Amino acid sequence: MEEYNIKTKVVGVDISNERTTYAIVDIRGNIIAEESFDTALYRDVNSFVTVLSEKIVTLVEANGGYETIRSIGVSAPSASSISGYIENATNLPWKGSVPLAVMLRERIGLAVGMANDAHVSALGEYTFGSAHGMTNFIVISLGVGLGSCFFSRGSEHVGHRGFSGEFGHTCVEDHGRLCGCGHRGCLETYVGAKGIVKTAVEVMTSSDQASLMRNLEKLSPRTIAECCDKGDELAIEVYRQTGYKLGIGMANYASIVDPEAIILTGGISHAGQWLVDPTRESFEEHVFGNMRGKVKILTSKLDDRERDVLGASALAWSVPEYSLFK
Amino acid sequence: MEEYNIKTKVVGVDISNERTTYAIVDIRGNIIAEESFDTALYRDVNSFVTVLSEKIVTLVEANGGYETIRSIGVSAPSASSISGYIENATNLPWKGSVPLAVMLRERIGLAVGMANDAHVSALGEYTFGSAHGMTNFIVISLGVGLGSCFFSRGSEHVGHRGFSGEFGHTCVEDHGRLCGCGHRGCLETYVGAKGIVKTAVEVMTSSDQASLMRNLEKLSPRTIAECCDKGDELAIEVYRQTGYKLGIGMANYASIVDPEAIILTGGISHAGQWLVDPTRESFEEHVFGNMRGKVKILTSKLDDRERDVLGASALAWSVPEYSLFK
Amino acid sequence: MEEYNIKTKVVGVDISNERTTYAIVDIRGNIIAEESFDTALYRDVNSFVTVLSEKIVTLVEANGGYETIRSIGVSAPSASSISGYIENATNLPWKGSVPLAVMLRERIGLAVGMANDAHVSALGEYTFGSAHGMTNFIVISLGVGLGSCFFSRGSEHVGHRGFSGEFGHTCVEDHGRLCGCGHRGCLETYVGAKGIVKTAVEVMTSSDQASLMRNLEKLSPRTIAECCDKGDELAIEVYRQTGYKLGIGMANYASIVDPEAIILTGGISHAGQWLVDPTRESFEEHVFGNMRGKVKILTSKLDDRERDVLGASALAWSVPEYSLFK
Amino acid sequence: MEEYNIKTKVVGVDISNERTTYAIVDIRGNIIAEESFDTALYRDVNSFVTVLSEKIVTLVEANGGYETIRSIGVSAPSASSISGYIENATNLPWKGSVPLAVMLRERIGLAVGMANDAHVSALGEYTFGSAHGMTNFIVISLGVGLGSCFFSRGSEHVGHRGFSGEFGHTCVEDHGRLCGCGHRGCLETYVGAKGIVKTAVEVMTSSDQASLMRNLEKLSPRTIAECCDKGDELAIEVYRQTGYKLGIGMANYASIVDPEAIILTGGISHAGQWLVDPTRESFEEHVFGNMRGKVKILTSKLDDRERDVLGASALAWSVPEYSLFK
Q1: For B9-63, how does the pLDDT look when each residue is reduced to its tens digit (9 = 90+)?
Q2: What CA–CA distance (Å, rounded) separates C110 from C104?
Q3: How many Å apart are CA A206 and CA B174, to the nearest integer?
Q4: Could you give the ipTM of this predicted complex?
Q5: How close does chain D come to A281, measured CA to CA in Å?
Q6: Contact, D89 vs D97, CB < 8 A?
């Protein structure tokens, strides 16, 4: 009896502006091998893809070989799963439209699926995290920017062009702070990393109160949260204001989507209660009445990087199998 | 050969705070017979359902008989297709939770589907209107309140509890106008019928300029729009401000959903260019860059009442067949 | 206000081995204009597509013009909606793999969807016929060959390569009659047009009984059915044997798919009770117990050609809009 | 911050005519604890459900407690996921219609999903086995009876009443062997356990050739396969005839469904090459031309019992969460 080669592993790739992580993952989400490198080393996207391909092939050859890998899934900022392009990524070194999925497929000879980083995070939470078993939920990724993705009837909502979920660029303050996208009042300018620092400066400027923040070498969401942990009132006020704005944005999102849960992920979510408590309070104050008290607001239980690599592996399983080899 | 009775007609019912319309509709959306009555005549929901049932049965008996009707679809404000209840409808005479779908099914003996009026409008646009052939789009209903519904992958997004699309209660102005829902700054307080009138009063109060609006017996979205048609600058300013706020709300909605089109329906959409032009301008100014210039903003080509009855008929086809009779 | 061009019509094309029919159809299935020509006139597929394109453009120009047409849907034997190819069609003049969808799209400059004729028939019954409102059903097309399609959860089951539904080539008699496909015992060899004629010859040969069939100039499913209408016992026996075999095949199909209904279409279904009664009897005798007496066996209420053009129009709406023009 | 209780485990239950197995399973398919008991001990279904409930509660209390369990999934012969009933199960002690899902839900106070054993096997192969990443495939379970399930567009095909996949009761031999279901010629009478034994008796009776089978105390699929392993020609002939019939049935199935793969599971599939080689040969001889050589015929890589418990756990995640407790 001739045996068919049923492939039981995929490669998940998570490209962020800082690091690119790639791992061999099996059906149940066990990471067989994982490596990463500095994304910014490769200013030219061709060099990047060449190096990434070589590194993947090397890892694969050392872990069971080419013919055991079914496909590849890629998470990248500003990627569209519909076009297969990264388009106008503000935080990546490569400008304009980059057909990364096709480039990788041609170099490696395996099927490649690609999607927006926030969409992949949501897929990770759905497949292996807190959203497992939910059919309507929102995942919000809080970091340098604010990504998001929601599921409708158990499937990721992709949108007409693959750019749904741009939560960070919803306007929460008409004529508000100037955003890197050129608009004013985007939620990101208040809840993104730079926005929180800006709020901290404003809070300190408008008050005479003593604060540990005044002694910090570098203001960042993390250092501000550390001040909160020490009971610093102004630092707590910074996250209170941040949560207030985030709560409005989330309430608007929920009034439209009616989710079972909203899951907060990403570096800034690690501020924990300092962020989540005021966010939840503002959320309940602003969300439509029929949903008040009913939407679960959660922080992710998974490690961010692991979830994104696992989400990319789940994406890999969703593309039709294709191999130059067999 | 025994012949199976394949039923080729359904009943579509549209319940609004003003009128209840019911019609016999065939597969292709031809309205065979249609009648309506004043919803507010029946302050008690039991009386309402009894009368509605009797009227439907009478219409059905006069048009081919019971055994030709497959099922019934109902559009109602604040209805959830998941619970089958009308819940806390602000503009209907019946308070609290009303299990209208079951009540009607028990009285008539046929399968009954029920959904939110905005969802039924979207289903009508999808089945017979401008959204036919689209898989991701938004329908916004502009009237006393602001309803909405969006489609994801060719299906209505329902949400976890069936209350998605509460666009009118998204916050566009923190600490803004007081809404009937108890919150402040809801979009409805600026773009709903009462909100537009309020803006008109504000515009007239803050200006000395002559205006036809000052002579109106009754300020309403319609009479204000008529002033616009006559070139009245302050009236045009009223719709300009209205469109500006609506444009922000729609931009936020689109940044999250990434639709192919947004279709405006309902009484206020009949203001036409006076509303749509400033809305579109504000929309393009606020929507996420990758979608700018790409989302079609349309007004419905269908008559509102006809579309809602047709949408209800499409809903009727989506529920499993059931009949006490045969 | 710039107006978007929302297109409200499509072109449906039905290619059969005999005739090619094309029509302009609106959203509700009204045929605006329809023409047809002899498929076999064009032995070369390039000539065929060129002529078809020119004829479509001419019809379109005479009926509202190019910019009113959204897209084109094509029904063809042995077509795969996955590959977009007609593959090894036994009854068409063009051999091998023919990328007809792409050829037509390039010539006309509009989006083209293509699917197997049986799949398009099912789509027609679902959108405008007896299957409207059903989510699990089978449509069987009885003609020269036997096509079929079933719906699963409200969508056409396409299969991995787009070749599902090859009901005519299921084996009902091990080592039975030789089929054109090279196998023995295919259902088509008993229930297809040639198979019925063969059965008629066998029935006449193995009996001395008088029969109107013995005087027929040409034995065909239609002329045999006419003999049945006149009470001819041997002719009735022909259809009894045909229905017996068809009933076994359908019972096997239903035991696997568990449909709400099986709808019989195509020329041979016009034999009516002579075919349907013994088919149903054999079906009930062979189908799995839990389904016995529960599956509706119907003949189509639509004209075959109209349904296929309408089904092709429904297919046209399902492909993403694309136009070289605007 | 109040913490929501996100439940990370479910209970999977596999009820077969021999044993009932129940296990606590986490999101990734790790079995935390598993026990089983003899199904036939409980001739009365009320006793059965009471005992099963108590045993599950005991296991759950010993492994993290009630509030960590999201829901329960049950695999049972002749169960319909649409009605929630076990209906007319031929091999279970409980006759007629048994509303097992509701009975269990009422006793345990958690959401319960139930489906046909073959459907749960397919879900297990899809979630954790060889079908992971496939969207159209068939799983056939070969044991006392022959169950099956196929996936369409990535979802299990359920059918109108939940009884799809009755592959064992498709007719492969008109007027053939009498089946327990009352029909003649069902595939099960040739390929089910009793059918194989019957074939062995026929083969031995019609031949004078020596055979190890003649000395067997008990003829069974397993003992016959052991004879094959020892090179016994008549035993090999038994499986050759079995595979021939199975190949016809599978070819008919595939011609209708067009799957990417057919996965054989269940006790009889353990005969391995003796069954699979002639099955594949007969399959290729009978399947429709466009699929010949393209359908992967596989045996399951998972342990049958483990797969069914895991499949039941996947089913548990698909039902909406519900708990009497919190």
Answers
A1: 999 999 998 899 999 999 999 999 999 999 999 999 999 999 999 999 999 999 9
A2: 8
A3: 21
A4: 0.94
A5: 10
A6: no
CA dist B23 and B5 (Å) reads 21
Cβ contacts of D47 within 8 Å, gap of 6 or more: none
The length of chain D in residues reads 326
| Cβ density class C117-130: b for 16+ within 10 Å, e for less | bbbbbbbbbbbbbb
**DSSP codes of every residue in B181-204:** TS-BSBTHHHHSHHHHHHHHHHHH
Its sign, for the CA torsion D31, D36, D39, D43, is negative
Residue A215, CA distances (Å) to A223, A232, A238, B315 in order:
11, 12, 16, 63
| Beta pairing, strands A9-15 & A69-76 | parallel
Nearest to C303 by CA among C130, C138, C133, C135: C130
Neighbours of chain C (3+ CB pairs under 8 A): B, D
Q: How confident is the model at residue B193 (pLDDT cuts 50, 70, 90)?
A: very high
User: No. of H helices and E strands in chain B?
Assistant: 9, 12
Name beta bridge partners: A36: A21
Measure the CA–CA gap between B311 and B303, rounded to whole angstroms.
12
pLDDT digits (tens, 9 = 90+) for C174-196: 999 999 889 999 999 999 999 99
| Contact with chain A for residue B73, Cβ under 8 A | no
Which residue in D27, D296, D298 is closest to A128 by CB distance? D27
Q: Which of D182, D259, D288 sits opposite C169 (nearest CB)?
A: D288
Closest CA to D305 of D31, D28, D26, D112: D31
A284 φ, ψ to 5°?
Answer: -65, -30
Residues B256, A166: C-beta atoms closer than 8 Å: yes
Q: Distance (Å) from the C-alpha of residue B4 to the closest C-alpha of chain A?
A: 34
Query: What's the whole-model pTM score?
Result: 0.95
Helix segments in B62-130, DSSP class H: 100-108, 117-128
